[in-house]
Design goal:
Catalytic activity: [(1->4)-alpha-D-glucosyl](n) + phosphate = [(1->4)-alpha-D-glucosyl](n-1) + alpha-D-glucose 1-phosphate
Oligomer: single chain
Cofactor: pyridoxal 5'-phosphate
Number of helices: 35
Modified residues (N6-(pyridoxal phosphate)lysine): 680
Helix content: 40-55%
Distance between the termini: 38 Å
Structural class: alpha/beta
GO cellular component, one term: cytoplasm
EC number: 2.4.1.1
């Protein structure tokens, strides 16, 4: 028996709404006057007393006015049309600063800049006061942000769902060469861009037990004795570029049901009086809490269920407000799971449909598998989340029951199609019985989704052939590919205004919204005057980066040097350590005079290591120790410098990408799902040095073999070498340069006060099997770097290749990615206001 659902949609007078919005737009003040008004009436100051931060807030309020009218209009139009919507569930949304981006997307950036100049302010200066929203860590979160930008730009009705973290992951500082994690208090000042929506709060349950009650309608399941946390929604507008559409990003913040216990307070037990509030709010405080402890694991699972439950309730509340027939649910709702983190949504949707709306199990399951789609972002089995059955039973007892039932029916189906194959049943079971009984979240997502996609052609094929080969056999046709992309609005229009201006001058506007138009610049690669102008733009961007590096680190670098850049999460498979081996090799060659014509080079690293990832943090420390040695050595520091740029975030990336000459994408083949930093750097005129891994394969196909530096083992060669028995000692003993470099690290050459500091790194390479084959790829990498250095001597040839990289990046627009999702996976069409 279904719950009572409203049989008619709520009616609003659309003509009145549209007329009100139109009148508001017509009545909006000129931006200079709006700025002065907001300074007076929103900030409460006069010009003579205003600080730079006051002017940032004033400008943000002014842009927000233009956003709000479109936002309201978009929401009302979706509601009145009752159109199908996409719901994008992601634990991260690395949206970056909003002021400049929103002004650009709304088309008011020139007026805003002029208005600020009239009152003695510069847009670039006040924009620096906006903190980066600490809602993500790296590529996964930035991808989600690119996607919501593209969905709005392409008029796809969509809502993003995530968590409003109080402190995000952490703010990274480097002290004595080591990463130090500090709270990233990005909400210290008012977040002008969000709107709290208390009328849409949800309750989320944890712990307790389940009562199974027999009734005339069957067995009912009641989750009792639970703890309850309130999910408070905060909405952030997402403006499209060159359109009236402003979509919504809804972020949930955890609140206690009873934030203050007056009785305890009156008894003098002040800590006890706020205990409930602190316990609840912990859930949304920090992204990726350290899970090396049991309490850390529990908090991670709590986070994931918290935002998934609130989002699922919100989706169903919206559906039931305007629809009476449950069978139309997949016609109105498409849910995309961004990686494994939100995969508990499959069980939560069943919980809501069966326990709260009282649908029959089979009917509910059919609806679930028509709504959900799952994006996988990893090829490494250890990166697929699993949770102990014991933790699940304690934290989410009803969901464990549901997962058991899903698994039971799934295994029955598998056994019918592949009778007697017990090995297959064990491998695909949602419950792993071989490692202490654990819930395999990726398996839950696959079983509960109608489509599973990888994020690069190579990655998707490897998923089908290796990681999920069994599922591919069970579900032929379920697995597909959607290559990732990046938004040209953020990563060209905003991050690189000089290059945008140069391109616009020669090929006109339009490429910001339709990146295929950028191919028109290709003939100019053979134009000497254009190459010169292109180099001048790159030089200016490099000088901007050099100035920022001096400000952040005190290290002076020459903008004429080759800027060799590797910026991404610090992880062994991304092989920042291989880059360090090359740096030390170059250092040795310069000191011994082996380089006759040297190309001055600045090697720039940036990225964060997870707080519990000790070896990654050691790699950061090694980078800084090597940098200290080289940068203070007068024999080499005019030819080689090393920089670790602290606290890598979106606003830093917007300076680093345009300033890069060489893009380091050197992960072990078969380990990187896609990568999007490679796309951003190429779009900004950097040449790629990389393995045939992730999206590098497709970048190579687009830019041409002659315009990229590919080296190293391929994925089949990696597999073959490991199968035959890879021995890193063979490479160590056969290559004198490599042996010297490793011996220097191990002997304390870069850490004289603590000679054994990096013994663990040496052990990883030599005694523990060199899992990511750095030594096997070392010689090929050094050879490729020699080719890079030689080519950089010929600036005409280098700039020609860089221009062709820019011109051939059209495939890697996130607009193309979203169009692919919309047509093949979500079955949703653009909705023009």
């Amino acid at each position: 028996m279904t719950a009572n659902v409203k049989k008619t949609r709520k009616k609003t007078d659309q003509s009145d709404t549209s007329q009100a919005v139109e009148e508001f737009l017509l009545e909006q003040l000129p931006i200079p006057q709006a700025l002065r008004n907001h300074l007076t009436f929103s900030i409460g100051k006069s010009n003579s007393w205003a600080t730079t931060r006051d002017w940032y807030q004033t400008a943000a309020f002014t842009v927000r006015d233009h956003l709000m009218s479109r936002w309201v209009n978009t929401r009302d139009a979706y509601r009145d049309a009752n159109t199908k919507r996409v719901y994008y569930l992601s634990l991260e949304f690395l949206i970056g600063r909003m002021l400049s981006n929103a002004a650009l997307n709304l088309g008011i950036a020139p007026e805003l800049s002029d208005g600020l100049q009239q009152i003695g302010q510069k847009l670039e200066g006040i924009a620096e006061l906006e903190p980066d929203a600490a809602l993500g860590n790296g590529g996964l979160g930035r991808l989600a942000a690119c996607f919501v930008d593209s969905m709005a730009t392409m008029d796809i009705p969509a809502t993003g769902y995530g968590i409003r973290y109080d402190y995000g992951m952490f703010r990274q500082t480097i002290e004595h060469g080591q990463q130090k994690e500090n709270p990233d208090n990005w909400l210290r000042y008012q977040n002008i861009w969000e709107v709290q929506r208390p009328e849409h709060t949800c309750e989320v349950k944890f712990y307790g037990r389940v009562l199974h009650v027999h009734t005339e309608h069957g067995i009912e399941h009641h989750w009792v004795d639970h703890e309850t946390v309130v999910a408070m929604p905060y909405d952030v507008p997402v403006p499209g570029y060159g359109t009236q559409t402003v979509n919504n990003l809804r972020l949930w913040s955890a609140k206690a049901t009873n934030e203050f216990d007056l009785a305890h307070f009156n008894e003098g037990n002040y800590e006890k009086s706020v205990e409930g509030r602190h316990g609840a709010e912990t859930i949304s405080q920090v992204l990726y809490p350290n899970d090396t402890s049991e309490s850390g694991k529990a908090l991670r699972l709590k986070q994931q269920y918290f935002f998934v439950s609130a989002s699922t309730q919100d989706i169903l509340h919206r559906f039931t407000n305007y629809n009476a027939d449950w069978d139309t649910l997949p016609e109105k709702v498409a849910i995309q799971l961004n990686d494994t983190h939100p995969s508990i949504a499959v069980a939560e949707m069943m919980h809501q449909l069966v326990d709260h709306y009282h649908l029959q199990w089979d009917r509910a399951w059919k609806l679930v598998t028509k709504m959900f789609a799952y994006t996988n972002h990893t090829l490494m089995p250890e990166a697929l989340e699993t949770w102990s059955v014991e933790l699940f039973a304690q934290l989410l007892p009803r969901h464990l029951d549901i997962i058991y039932e899903i698994n039971h029916q799934f295994l029955q189906m598998v056994n019918q199609h592949f009778p007697g194959d017990t090995g297959l049943l064990q491998r695909v079971s949602i419950i792993d019985e071989t490692h202490g009984r654990r819930v395999r979240m990726a398996h839950l997502a696959i079983v509960g989704s109608h489509t599973v996609n990888g994020v690069a052609e190579l990655h998707s094929e490897l998923l089908k052939a290796t990681l999920f080969a069994d599922f591919n056999k069970i579900y032929p046709g379920k697995f597909t590919n959607v290559t990732n992309g990046i938004t040209p609005r953020r990563w060209l229009n905003q991050a690189n205004p000089l290059l945008t201006e140069l391109l616009t001058k020669h090929i006109g506007t339009g490429f910001q919204k339709d990146l295929s138009l950028i191919k028109k610049i290709e003939p100019f690669a053979d134009n000497a005057a254009f190459r010169k102008a292109f180099r001048e733009v790159k030089k200016a961007n490099k000088q901007r980066l050099a100035d920022k590096i001096m400000q952040k680190t005190g290290i002076a670098i020459d903008a004429d040097a080759l800027f060799d850049v590797q910026i991404k999460r610090i992880h062994e498979y991304k092989r920042q350590l291989l880059n360090v081996l090359h740096v030390i090799t170059l250092y040795n060659r310069i000191r011994t005079g082996q380089v006759s014509v040297h190309t001055p080079r600045v090697v720039i690293f940036a990225g964060k290591a997870a707080p519990g990832y000790w070896l990654a943090k050691q790699i950061i420390r090694l980078i800084n120790d090597v940098a200290s040695m080289i940068n203070h050595d007068p024999a080499v520091n005019h030819q080689l410098k090393v920089v670790f740029y602290p606290n890598y975030e979106v606003s830093a990336a917007e300076i680093l990408f345009p300033g890069a000459d060489l893009s380091e994408q050197i992960s072990t083949a078969g380990t990187e799902a896609s990568g999007t930093g490679n796309m951003k750097m190429a779009l900004n005129g950097a040449l790629t040095i990389g393995t045939l891994d992730g999206a590098n394969v497709e970048i190579k196909e687009e830019v041409g073999d002659e315009n990229i530096f590919i080296f190293g083992l391929t994925t089949p060669e990696v597999a073959k070498l490991k199968a035959e028995g890879y021995n890193p000692w063979d490479y160590y003993h056969s290559n004198p340069e490599l042996k010297q470099v490793i011996d220097m690290i191990g002997s304390g050459f870069f850490s004289v006060e603590e000679p054994a500091r990096y013994q663990a790194i040496v052990d990883t390479l030599l005694h523990k099997g060199d899992q990511y084959l750095l030594l096997a790829d070392y010689a090929a990498y050094i050879t490729a770097q020699d080719k890079v250095a030689a080519l950089y001597q010929d600036q005409e040839a280098w700039s020609r290749m860089a221009i062709l990289n820019v011109a051939r990046m059209a495939k890697f627009s996130s607009d193309r990615t979203i169009a692919d999702y919309a047509a093949r996976i979500w079955q949703v069409s653009p909705f023009k206001l």
